Amino acid sequence: MKTEKNEARAGLLYGIGAYGMWGLVPLFWPLLKPAGAIEILAHRMVWSLVFVGVALLALRRWSWIPELMRSPRKLGMITLAAAVITVNWGLYIWSVNTGHVVEASLGYFINPLVTIALGVLVLKERLRPAQWAAVGVGLSAVLVLAVGAGRPPWISLTLAFSFAVYGLVKKKVNIGGLESLAAETAVQFLPALAYLVWLGTRGTLAFGSHGAGHTALLVATGIVTAAPLVCFGAAAIRVPLSTLGLLQYLAPTFQFLLGVVYFHEAMPAERWAGFSLVWLALTILTWDALRTARKSRAQVETAAAAAAETARAETAPVEAAPSAPPGR
């Protein structure tokens, strides 16, 4: 029992660490200037493969590679995942470094709603009434933000949809987090390296041109990508999915607070209204998820108790019937 509590506590800390790092990453990308967003993205791809490869080598987790290579379907899905996460990473870096942190945070707030919508459209899932209500409120929030800004919140929507599609593809591939990142960055590696070499031939490569500290920070993009993923993987095997579902809101919350408090981005009334609607939608979604989880747990416990009672009844000794008196 004590070991289980320690494991749960460790899982909670790993989860907070993962989402905390993802939430604070907007502080990191501006440090890489004057490198442009695409160069930073290319470094992230190259150095992520290096660090994840070292991690897999240390853990001796290579058995998944032959199986992946024998499956053209999985290779195709990995390539699609790599393409989608490239869009997500690149747009996020650009958004942070051009003063759109708040709008980027909105993308990860509405991501659960987009994931639910994709479940209906792609997987033909059926939604509960509360989930429909949450999606409807989320759609209203997007409309309010679009009318207020005079344009759709395209950064938020692109980030939300790209990450939702990425999650859907990862679900189909069904391999571990580190292994998946290694496969995806292996797909990204050669184009990213070719782009960096091309920048070098033009004399516009920032890597190595702005001191050792700046060079080290570009190399650290690999750690910044891999470290939260490792923590997330450690959390996922120790805490329930419902707990991870609540923790996922830490990252966009931190990003939103950084955008408002640290980067001093504008928050006009219509933006507050839009965000308030999104938070209402997420509150409905979370309440429904917790209620459904409690109901499912109660049903499992009731079924287990009934099965145990039936088992006891079947194994109980049968009392002998009273014998008839002699002479009858």
Number of strand segments: 0
Number of discrete helical segments: 13
Q: How would you describe the shape? A: globular
Largest sheet at a glance?
none
Mean pLDDT over the residues: 86
Percent of residues in helices: over 70%
Low-confidence stretches: 320-328
Spatial extent as radius of gyration: 25 Å
Q: What structural class results from the helix and strand content?
A: mainly alpha
Order of helices and strands: HHHHHHHHHHHHH
End-to-end Cα distance, whole Å, is 62 Å
Summarize the structure in words.
This protein has helices at residues 2-24, 37-59, 64-69, 72-97, 101-121, 129-149, 154-173, 177-202, 212-219, 221-236, 241-247, 250-262, 269-315. It is mainly alpha-helical and 328 residues long. Helix 2 packs across helix 4 and helix 4 runs antiparallel to helix 7. The longest helix has 47 residues, at 269-315. The relative contact order is 0.17. Residues 320-328 have low confidence and may be disordered.
